Every structure is written in C-alpha cells, then in structure tokens.
Amino acid sequence: AIQMTQSPSSLSASVGDRVTITCRASQGIRNDLGWYQQKPGKAPKLLIYAASTLQSGVPSRFSGRGSGTDFTLTISSLQPEDFATYYCLQDFNYPRTFGQGTKVEIK
Amino acid sequence: QVQLVQSGSELKKPGASVKVSCKASGYSFGHNAMNWVRQAPGQGLEWMGWINTNSGNPTYAQGFTGRFVFSLDTSVSTAYLEISSLEAEDTAVYYCAREDNLSGTSVDLFDYWGQGTLVTVSS
After folding, report:
1. pLDDT tens profile A40-67
2. Were B20 and a residue from A91, B50, B81, B96 both cysteine, which residue would form a disulfide, CB within 3.0 to 4.6 Å?
3. Residues of chain A contacting residue B97, judged by C-beta atoms under 8 Å apart
4. Using a CB cutoff of 8 Å and minimum separation of 24, what contacts does B26-33 make?
C-alpha cells in the first residue's frame, strides 16, 4: 500500500498567516491526490482534487501543488473558519490511503 | 441536491452485530461508487473499502475483511455497512462517502460524505 506522510502533524498559526502543509507519497502517484478539511464532530469536506483543482465553492485562499511524490496545500491568509484538521488522500490506486492529518490550531 | 444521510448512533455489546445505513438522494445511485471510512476516537481517517453500486461488488481494505460487509438496497438508494462480532476496537465514527470520477480522466474524489455514525462497543 502507498504510504502518505503529512507534515507537520500540527501547527499553531494566527489569523492572516500563510500556512503550508506537506504530503509525501511513498511512490509516485501522478497528481492523484485530494485534500480534505475536517472540523470537530463533522464529516470531512473536499477542498482540492487532482492535486491542484479547487472544488466548487471552496475559497480561493486554498491552493494545492505537486505531482509525483510531493504535494502541498497552502492557505494564503488563514481565516478563523480554517482552524481544522487537514488530510491528504491518494486516489492513484487501491487501497486508498490517507495522510495522518495536520491539525491547524489558533496561536 | 446530493445528500447522504446515515443512521443514528449505536451502542452495542461485544460480540453483537451492527448495521449502518447510508441513504443517498439527489443523484442516480448507481452512477457513483460508495466508499466507507472509519475514524476511531481522536484518530485520523482510515479507508475501509468501497462498493460498486451497479454490480454490488465490494472491495475491502486489509484489516476490514471477514467481519465487515458492504451491501446495497438499490430500490431505496441505500448502502449498508454491517460489522459482526463487535470488539471494543470497533468503537469509531463510520462515514460513507460518494466517489465521483471525472469522465475521461483518472481523477477520483470523495465529493459528498454522510454525517457519520458513531458505533460504541462497550459491555
């Protein structure tokens, strides 16, 4: 199975900060990667698919980059509603595998 | 609008069984695969597998074979997850997630999720 390694596992940031989360795949996955946001007690929400395509309705401050094994999710200016846990998910092959998550907390 | 509505929380004793439902609406049920994802308390997301909503053929991730069964009732656009011989370690929130595939591409994404069903296993 492809292992997805996210970093950092948590971070503290202030409103207005630029935040970058990294996801590394244990083998090349083309651009078959999505990013999901999960708030406490809620279901995950799709933010980005195909590594860099913004899901409809998602604010443009979210962006994704990468191909092959290294991917990033960037929030250009952190807003109060962005404090959550973020997961990457590879859809290159089966079994699908998630990263372990990055919790974004208020500084 | 697309909705996935899951059944309510369950409290079960070890050794019992539970069946979680995921009722879909707002789209053609057989057009999209359905995935199941587990989240243990305070832990991350774990992909359990998926079911082809056309053929009913399930695929299970390692660690989810034997006691876990995915099924469908297409007449009511509902997917089910049944877990037998429950153990304390099965305590988790279980999510269904619709998979969409962008036509002509290799892109798959989980675009709609159920609200989650908490299964608690305790004596």
Report:
1. 999 999 999 999 999 999 999 999 999 9
2. B81
3. 44
4. B26/B1, B26/B2, B27/B2, B27/B98, B29/B53, B29/B74, B29/B77, B30/B54, B30/B74, B32/B98, B32/B99, B32/B100, B32/B101, B33/B98, B33/B99
